[in-house]
Design goal:
Shape: globular
Mean pLDDT: 89
Number of helices: 5
Low-confidence stretches: 1-26
Distance between the termini: 22 Å
Number of domains: 1
CATH architecture: Beta Barrel
Length: 389
């Protein structure tokens, strides 16, 4: 799952509103306001795909997939519209989304009234407001609040920014959004520190307890050649009445992107954590490595391997709501064609494997309205297209 938080915003097509044009349409503002620099940037993307699962599951689902969850079906994955605006030191950012991702990123609503409450929130991928006051002759501080795409991992919500069509297993089990506020301090062009307070992981419409979570982050970059992010998050994430009790969860995240040569790029990601509670100690670990090679200016080859491992106490519950397996991973090979500057066509093969039934194949049984996993592996081929502006 994101670059990070507001670093995930798109900035490919801009529409600048100058002070002069604004004055022509509205009464003259105070002098200090009219001198502020104003900007408005609009961008967006669309994604569609067809995926075939060789296990031919009767429920038509590819398990543990976000961007290619449907078997043998032409589907719209996501349609996104991004708006960024600023006036002087004040800025705002909104990303709207429609499609499969808007549904898969949330757990099913337990009741109809709850579904009616959530429906408008599901189209909001990210909404933030920010302020960057001038200090010491520059603007090193940025204060933001709103709904953020969770910053964990090196993958993005937008497929065209990733090297493969389907993201890692970690992206599927990791939190998607967080609501809260944060402050960033840019020491120079290379080093940035960030600290934030959030309602918790995937808590947007309401909160599941009265505690708050804190996220600390350090970023280092040399431009296009190297990017490194290290994060630590701590806070109570369980529900108020959870049998595990209100114990602090500790989460660590480290990822990097490196340009090894003019044609070769590399990415690595480590994610782990632990939660001591009344039932014992929950623990988890995830790792992923990927590479992208430029064969021609319009042809790329990418490969990735990833795994997720979780430790659950005998009387405890999985942090990721897993049932039937605690170790699973995948291998992915992707061919990408860029016939136009803003069009990406991809063909991808992926193999998933687990130490227990996590996937679907053949005739899938249901119990209490839930599909029962009946396979410990799955193989898929996906053809996808995405465009952006």
């Amino acid at each position: 799952m994101t670059a990070v938080i507001t670093l995930r915003h798109l900035a490919t097509l801009g529409l600048a509103l100058s002070p002069a044009s604004a004055l022509a349409q509205a009464p003259s503002p105070p002098a200090e306001t009219s001198e502020l620099r104003r900007s408005l940037t609009v961008s967006g993307y669309a994604e569609a795909y067809y995926s075939y699962n060789f296990g031919a599951p009767s429920n038509g689902l590819n398990a543990f997939r976000f961007f290619d969850a449907s078997h043998d079906h032409i589907a719209l994955n996501n349609l996104g519209l991004d708006v960024n605006w600023s006036i002087g030191p004040v800025a705002g950012h909104t990303t709207l989304q429609l499609g499969a991702v808007a549904g898969l990123a949330y757990l099913p609503a337990p009741t109809l009234p709850r579904a009616q409450q959530e429906i408008l929130w599901r189209v909001l991928q990210e909404v933030t407001l920010g302020w960057s006051p001038r200090l010491l002759g520059r603007a090193p501080l940025t204060v933001e609040a709103g709904i953020f795409v969770a910053p964990f991992g090196v993958e993005w919500v937008q497929v065209y920014r990733n090297w493969t069509w389907s993201p890692t297993n970690f992206f599927y089990v990791a939190p998607f959004q967080m609501t809260g506020g944060r402050a960033s301090w840019k020491f120079n062009d290379r080093l940035t520190a960030r600290a934030g307070v959030y309602a918790g992981m995937d808590r947007v419409l309401d909160d599941n307890n009265s505690d708050r979570s804190v996220l600390l982050q350090l970023e280092y970059t040399t431009g296009d050649d190297l990017f490194v992010s290290a994060q630590y998050m701590f806070g109570v994430e369980r529900d108020r009445d959870a049998p595990e009790g209100p114990w602090v969860r500790h989460t660590f995240d480290l990822f990097t992107e490196l340009r090894a040569s003019r044609r070769l790029q590399l990415r690595g990601h480590l994610y782990g954590g632990f939660e001591p509670n009344r039932t014992g100690v929950n623990g988890w670990f995830s790792a992923a490595v990927s590479a992208r090679y430029e064969l021609l200016s319009w042809l790329f080859l990418a490969g990735r391997a990833d795994l997720v491992h979780e430790w659950v106490p005998e009387r405890g519950a999985s942090v990721f709501a897993l049932d039937g397996a605690n170790l699973f991973g995948s291998g992915t090979l992707t061919v990408e064609l860029l016939p136009e500057s803003h069009l990406s066509l991809r063909v991808e093969y992926r193999h998933d494997h687990a130490n227990g039934p996590l996937y679907f194949a053949g005739a899938v049984q249901r119990a209490a309205g839930v599909d029962i996993p009946n396979a410990d592996s799955q193989d898929t081929v996906t053809i996808g297209a995405t465009t952006w502006f």
